[in-house]
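README: folding subset

This subset contains proteins for which both the sequence and a predicted structure token string are available. Records are stored as plain text. Below is the entry for Membrane protein (408 residues), shown exactly as it appears on disk.
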Amino acid sequence: MESYLQDWLNLIFRWLHVTAGIAWIGASFYFNWLEGRLEKAPQAKQKKGIKGELWAVHGGGFYEVNKYHLAPEKMPETLHWFKWEAYITWLSGFGLLAIIYYWGADRYLLTPDSPLSSASAIAVSAFSLLVSWLIYDFLCRTPLFKSEKLFSAVLFGLIVFAAWGYAQLFSDRAAYIHVGALIGTLMVGNVFQIIIPSQRKLVDAAERGDSSFDPAIAQHALLRSRHNNYFTLPLLFIMISGHYPMTYGHDLNWAILAALSLAAILIRHFFNRRNQGAVLTWLWPAAAVVMMSLALVIRPQIAPLPEIAEQPAFDENEIVEIVTSRCSTCHAAQPTDPLFQTAPGGLIFDDYESIASKADKIFSQTVQTQIMPLANRTAMTEEERQQLAQWYQQLQSDKDNMIKVSMN
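--- output ---
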């Protein structure tokens, strides 16, 4: 019953997290696009305090958008705010972190040989998110913040360092999720602590008719919002990274995440600069080089297969027993692993035929790269991996023999 309850909580919080996240990231993309696409307002509008304007067509109608230098002469009766998308995304994401990785800390947060207890690991997890925000916020209030390129490099380096640290403390998948939680915490902290308070100050000044509002406050909030915009694509990859164990399951998973994030940031920068009128076409090949280089570096190393004994010490039932006991917590019609509601990749191993049909993939994941089972939570032994290797070699030998017979 506990597992069933956990599944439902997982479903509800994940659905809420994805829905709110789409709304938040969509708003971030739109307003950054809008900021870059605004054109200088005509003289008549400038006299009214309008800084820029934009015309758009959508949904069968025309839209006119105006941005004021600070505030209009008269405040509207209805003013729309954009904050709950961010708050709900972070709260639901933290809920998922607790449901999956805190509730089952001994199985999903920690590796079997971790020196941390479940309680200490949870404390480290929560404390690291708070510390990450404090460090980032402190850096944003230093002179370093004025140098955009240097600040970005330092911030990127610190996040990569955090990814490395998480990889030393937590299971592979948990390490990636914690980098995502860290980035999400920085983003929601910007909204809660900087962007919304600055907007409230702006609105209060406008309602009082106070023209002494410091524009630097709004500019600082705009820069924090831009940080959030660059965070989005790396964060989106982390959200879907569970489908790609070749990344988080690698020994250098933190470096792989850094390279993928760099490629994502380059693409995001291309669109942001294009919105401002500069088309930096070189960013696309640069991102492609990063991705292709990464694919080359982490490609599976072809290990020599063990010698086959004259009489292989296994049969079909043994192979089924190994795969179903070690892999079917995830690869089943109804996975028992709370990380998955359906079998990853649609791969279901419930009999010998279904296992043999995916022999190449099983061999690659369990023998060559050994990134499966996930964090080896089902404790597949080296002997079992050797048995799978011998079985795979025998299958390949049988296929070669059949081809030779058919050709003759």
